[in-house]
Amino acid sequence: MSYTEKTNSSDSAFYYEVCMLKMLQKMGLISQKEFDGISKTAEEDYYSDIQIIMS
């Protein structure tokens, strides 16, 4: 697997995780503080540098 494929795969996994966390937040299962903390950890775990902006 090339570097680009690994990067794209990591970015996709990070984006998926953030979307799932946002869904949990909208359901009231996690707070904004928890969302921020978990997504920051995921960003570090996946070595992602993509910007996720969700309202």
Walk me through the structure:
By secondary structure, the protein is an all-alpha fold. It has helices spanning 3-26, 32-45. Helix 1 runs antiparallel to helix 2 (32-45). The N and C termini lie far apart (34 Å). The mean pLDDT is 85.
Mean pLDDT level: 85
Largest sheet: none
H/E series: HH
Number of strands: 0
Instruction: Give the overall shape, derived from the CA principal axes.
Output: elongated
State Rg.
Answer: 12 Å
Number of helices: 2
Helix percent reads 55-70%
- CA distance, first residue to last residue: 34 Å
Low-confidence stretches: none
Share in β-strands: under 5%
Structural class: mainly alpha
List keywords for this structure.
2 helices, 55 residues, 69% helix, mainly alpha
Question: What's the short version?
Answer:
The model has no long low-confidence stretch (mean pLDDT 85). This protein starts with a helix and ends in a 10-residue tail after the last helix.
Topology (elements, then pairings):
Elements: H1 3-26, H2 32-45
Helix pairs in contact: 1-2
